[in-house]
Amino acid sequence: MRALLIVDLQNDFCPGGSLAVEDGDKIVMTVNQLMERFDLVVASKDWHPMETVHFEKWPVHCVAGTEGAEFHPELNSTNIDKIFLKGTDNKDDGYSAFEATSADLNQFLIDNGVTDLYLTGLATDYCVKASAIDASKKGFNTWVVNDAVKGVELKTGDVAKALDEMGALSVRFILSEEIS
Question: Is 41 exposed, middle or buried (0-12, 13-18, 19+ CB in 10 A)?
Fold first, then answer.
């Protein structure tokens, strides 16, 4: 069984948001098309409290219950089977979807017979990377869909470095057109 994981495709990470990934919104249509090819679709959301140590490193973003924390309006969220909230503790960064506090993503995937996990979303060099690495370490066959992710790239080379780190842990890379 395979599943699609949409990582943090939220307003604050898209153009106009407080922590926008350049062209982050450009992957939405690809993600929508991919959802139709999977029997199980899960998603993570950053869902931070207003006061958190996370905001010592980053601008305020994805505060629980705000418009910035909602999914991008063009994302067909009705096709998402379960949403996992992360970064909910004021002492927690919550980069990986496997750190979700609203429910246990790992157990949910196991309970649903998932062996293969395909990742999309934002940002390649932070939350996608952390989620992919955790998925691989937990024994899932893990793929990152290269044309359905975008990186922050704070420093030149951050995305390439993230891809190398993931690849070193058996994460594989695929294009959306290669997924039937």
Answer: buried
Choosing from 93, 127, 134, 150, which is the catalytic residue?
127
Catalytic residue among 45, 86, 129, 150: 86
Tokens 């359905």 belong to residue = 148
- Hey, where are the domains in the chain? 2-178
pLDDT in single tens digits along all 180 residues of the chain: 999 999 999 999 999 999 999 999 999 999 999 999 999 999 999 999 999 999 999 999 999 999 999 999 999 999 999 999 999 998 888 999 999 988 999 999 999 999 999 999 999 999 999 999 999 999 999 999 999 999 999 999 999 999 999 999 999 999 999 999
Q: Is 127 a catalytic residue?
A: yes
Q: Which CATH number fits domain 2-178: 3.30.460.10, 3.40.50.850, 3.30.428.10, 3.40.190.10?
A: 3.40.50.850
Annotation says 86 is catalytic: yes
Helix intervals (H) in the chain? 28-35, 105-111, 129-137, 158-168
d(CA 35, CA 13): 20
pTM assigned to the model: 0.97
